Amino acid sequence: MRTPVVLVLGFEPFADEAINPSAEIARRLDGELIAQHHVVSGILPVTFTDAPTRLAELLDQHRPQLVIALGQAGGRGEISLERVAINLIDARIADNAGLQPIDAEVLHAGPGAYFSTLPIKAIREELEALNVPSALSLSAGTYVCNQVAYWLGHLLATEHAPTRGGFIHVPWLPEQASRHPGEPSMPLEVMISGIRAAIECSLRTTTDLHVSGGTTH
Predict the structure, then answer these.
(1) Annotated catalytic residue: which of 78, 82, 126, 154?
(2) Which residues contact 67 (CB under 8 A, 6 or more apart)?
């Protein structure tokens, strides 16, 4: 019998950064066995043209039971559990291919938004118990992270049900924040511990907690 798969996705570096913590976390978790599920990782390009295509390929290839897509959110000091992705691209900077769409749809005539199907409130409580800074977030931005979060919601809703999934932003690493004075960061090992706990929580929690969100973003 095939061991069920958890797909963990990260992004390549962008915006003049030499490293992306989301990719480092995904690589480190690759091959682990968590709650009898095999973790497989994938790295997405930071390009509006290719990221959705690569996402779809990985979903078709691995047919996971759970998908957690990770992205870098420089300036945030906690692991941000994204609640919603919106049907909007409004790029503050160009992507790694030099494209900078403004006021564009992620998916023409698609729904206005897709909500995470991860148990994000239960995950937040798990992270708090581990002393890993975390928060619920209502904004995955309008860059490639939000585009991927939206496409993930769309693909899970239309082609890969009942797979669950969602998007989580992570802070800069300390070596990145050192080039941005005054900005927060988080050690890689802390982030890995937090994402591992998020996977474990998601696999055992079918109904999320019904408590106040306390959203800050």
Answers:
(1) 82
(2) 6, 7, 8, 9, 59, 152, 156, 163, 164, 165, 166
Which listed residue (37, 154, 160, 169) is catalytic?
169
175 is written with which tokens? 């070596």
Rounded Cα gap, residues 186 and 105, in angstroms: 33
pLDDT band at 2, cuts 50/70/90? confident
- pLDDT category at 170 given cuts 50, 70, 90 is very high
> Tokens 């509006």 — which residue?
48
Catalytic, 82? Answer: yes
- State the catalytic residue, choosing from 24, 37, 145, 160: 145
Q: Are strands 134-137 and 79-82 parallel, antiparallel or unpaired?
A: parallel
pLDDT value of residue 214: 61
Whole-model pTM: value is 0.96
pLDDT over 70 percentage in the chain: 98
Verify whether residue 154 is a known catalytic residue: no
145 is catalytic: yes
